[in-house]
Design a protein that fits this description.
Distance between the termini: 110 Å
Mean pLDDT: 84
Strand content: 5-15%
InterPro entries: Znf_GRF
GO molecular function: zinc ion binding
Oligomer: single chain
Structural class: mainly alpha
Radius of gyration: 35 Å
Keywords: Coiled coil, Metal-binding, Zinc, Zinc-finger
């Protein structure tokens, strides 16, 4: 059976059916994330980084080469999709500070609009008065 020199894997799961490692503890089940064994589950000592227990056993049979290639392609596609999701979430997410700033800007715009509307009404009144005076002078 093939194994990889890299130690990339998911975090372990403990189960009553898991084998006992050389330390006398239940080995945890993990999933390999290496190119040599993508998605292949195995058992390993829960203390493998803390002590010298080298317990290791594959749970799943070895995957054929085409299967490995396909799983790697799918994992890469998942990685790209996760990045897109994060980018989209970043685009739409706003913080409370952003909301406060946007509300303040909106209030300022509404105040400016109301001031402009009042000025426009005054100008219309003046134009109406001037036109009325002009029409009465022409008569």
């Amino acid at each position: 059976m093939s194994s990889s020199s890299s130690s990339s894997c998911t975090s372990g799961q403990l189960n009553v059916d898991n084998p006992v490692c050389f330390c006398g503890l239940k080995a945890s089940q993990r999933t390999s994330l290496t190119f040599d064994n993508p998605g292949r589950r195995f058992y390993g000592c829960i203390n493998y980084k803390r002590n010298s227990c080298d317990f290791f056993r594959w749970r799943d049979p070895e995957i054929c080469e085409r299967g490995k290639e396909y799983i790697i392609e799918l994992l890469e596609q998942i990685g790209h999709l996760k990045k897109k999701v994060i980018a989209l979430e970043n685009e739409i997410s706003t913080t409370p500070e952003d909301n406060y700033t946007l509300r303040k800007k909106l209030t300022n715009i509404e105040n400016s609009r109301m001031a402009l509307r009042e000025e426009m009404d005054r100008l219309i009144a003046k134009i109406t008065l001037v036109l009325a005076i002009q029409q009465s002078a022409d008569c």
